[in-house]
Amino acid sequence: MSVIEVKNLSFRYSEETDFVLKNVSLSVEQGEFVAVLGHNGSGKSTLAKHFNGICLPDEGTVQVCGMSVDADSDLAAVRRRVGMVFQNPDNQIIASVVEEDVAFALENLGVDHDEMHRRVREALEAVDMSYYAKHATYKLSGGQKQRIAIAGILAMRPDVLVLDEPTAMLDPKGRAEVMQVLHKFHEAGMTIVLITHFMDEAAQADRIVVMNEGEVLLEGTPHYVFQNAGLLWSVGLNVPQSTELMFLLREEGYKVPLAILTEEECISVLDDLLAGRIEREGL
Amino acid sequence: MSEVILKAEGLVEVYGAGTPFEKTAVNNVSFELYENEFVGVIGHTGSGKSTLIQMLNGLIKPTEGTIYFRGEDVWAKKYDRRMLRSNVGLVFQYPEYQLFEETVEKDIAFGPRNMGLNEEEVALRVEQAMHFTGLSDKLRESSPFELSGGQKRRVAIAGILAMRPRVLILDEPTAGLDPKGCSEILANVREYQREERATVVLVSHSMEDVAANASRVLVLEKGNLKMLASTQEVFARGEELMKMGLNIPQITRIFLQLRARGHENLPSVLSPEEAIRCLDAVTGGGRK
User: Fold this and answer.
1) Using CB atoms, which residue from B178, B246, B249 is nearest to A39?
2) What's the confidence (pLDDT) of residue A260?
3) Is the minimum CB–CB distance between A176 and chain B shorter than 8 Å?
4) Where do the structural domains in chain B lie, given as residue ranges?
5) Are B181 and B3 in contact (CB under 8 A)?
6) In chain B, whose CA is at the least distance from the CA of A250?
7) What are phi and psi of B275, to 5 degrees?
8) pLDDT reading at B288 higher than 60
9) A118 vs A114: CA distance, rounded Å
10) What is the model's pLDDT at position B2?
11) Could you tell me if residue A257 is inside a domain?
12) Which of B178, B251, B271 is nearest residue A197 as measured by Cβ atoms?
């Protein structure tokens, strides 16, 4: 069952400007972990903003959890189902104490007191931040702040979590913390849409959608997408170094598989190559 | 070897001395930077990188030790530290938040104008800085606030380049940019270094960027200088780096593991291109 269904979506920010999204169709299945890749200005963030009605389609339709997202929809209802996390952790923290920040949306929704406490506790546990419940938000690291922002969304119990470059402003440790939390949610059955330009993060998803100039350029499993290294390079994206190495080896005539993504896969191919188990053309 | 341009001697920085929050951010760090070199600075968040680079242009006064610029002690009485800050240009993290002028041109001109240069020279420097950072001449009259994130970043860097610093320090200049934006900005910085024979100090969490650009790497851990050596040598000590919680380029890690699996004749590599050359050599190549 698809939880997000986008059909022939076109959008522009004003009538004087060009279309940012051009006839985009896409669906995200229940429980799926989808990464959306693309360079700056490719339309990936604009696409994400359609998933909970921050942007509304000019043409085409967007359906989320069976509800259509347009000017006539109950957008508050849509936003309860689809939670969104943004790039800058500092812009998303409102309260001065961690647990109050996580409770912010629940207070707005009028959730009763005991239930609120329970949900805040669970959400903090889910992002491994229980220890910090009574701490001041301003003293947290970027990765911790971002996990608090995620907890605040989680406390609303959404069906889908959409994250727009949540790790772009974090250091490697913070990035790893956030990715770990996303994997945990994914294993628990949550639907996740991760907008990113980090190839290593996209490689961890079930499926990658590559955006370019407002259109879907490529989509499929990480192995499939990264096999198209030439195409990705041509639109200003990268592939992991392990994949790049396989391309260079192919150019040298070695008959190595192109669908190589992880370090382990790459090491095992190189192991074979060094042991003379891989054929080479032109020799 | 080129001449020493900047020398750090016994740098110590203690924050909140005498309070319960006392913290030594930089602990007895000494090193020399040469003209016309590209040095990468790596270290965990909180390792003292930001404190260190702010000491290099006199923004932070060291608790102990000092900095010599072209042999002169910058903390000596009557030393012109204002001039030092145009000679040692510092590009902060997310420098685009510091843009403030009405037009791109005025923003870039702010630094050189403050140096007291005449208008002709200022105009020339703005033009060159825009060229170095790949900004189209058409953007001259635009408001910096209407530009894309990547362009804003370039304007902010151009504002520092226009002062023609002999040492250019950049703190995470590519954070948040897409891969194309990252490699373009780093190529611009390299071009500036080459043409001006300047010294570049790049602080980065991206080991791939450091490996691809720096000739030497300085490693900080908890305020201590742990390593300062050629990029090759530093990344060849990948296991030590990983123990400090630092990453190394993926390709370097892969080769390290192959060595651990018995392929001891493989050297340490920094890029996929280098990896190919090594593999070719080890397997006998077969082509000339």
Assistant:
1) B178
2) 86
3) no
4) 249-288
5) no
6) B276
7) -60, -45
8) no
9) 6
10) 83
11) no
12) B178
The amino acid at residue B246 is L
Band of residue B30 on the pLDDT scale cut at 50, 70, 90: very high
Kindly state the tokens that stand for B132. Answer: 């170095």
Q: Predicted confidence band at A84 (pLDDT cuts at 50, 70, 90)?
A: very high
| Closest CB from B180, B250, B287 relative to A242 | B250
The nearest CA of chain B is from the CA of A78 a distance in Å of 29
Do B259 and A228 form a contact (C-beta atoms < 8 A)?
no
Inspect the interface and report whether the beta carbons of A249 and B247 lie closer than 8 Å.
Answer: no
Structure confidence at residue A41 (pLDDT)? 85
Establish if B244 touches chain A: CB-CB under 8 angstroms.
no
Answer whether A248 sits within 8 Å of B179, measured CB to CB. no
Where in A133-280 does DSSP place strands (E)?
Answer: 160-164, 191-196, 207-212, 215-220
Neighbours of B181 (CB within 10 A): 22
Cβ contact (<8 Å) for B181 and A141? no
For the cut 70, the answer to whether the pLDDT of residue B256 exceeds it is yes
Is 80 exceeded by the pLDDT of residue A88? yes
**A115: domain CATH number?**
3.40.50.300
Chain A residues within 8 A of B261 when measuring between CB atoms: 267, 271
Digit-coded pLDDT (tens) for B135-164: 999 999 999 998 888 899 999 999 999 999
Q: What's the structural domain count of chain A?
A: 1
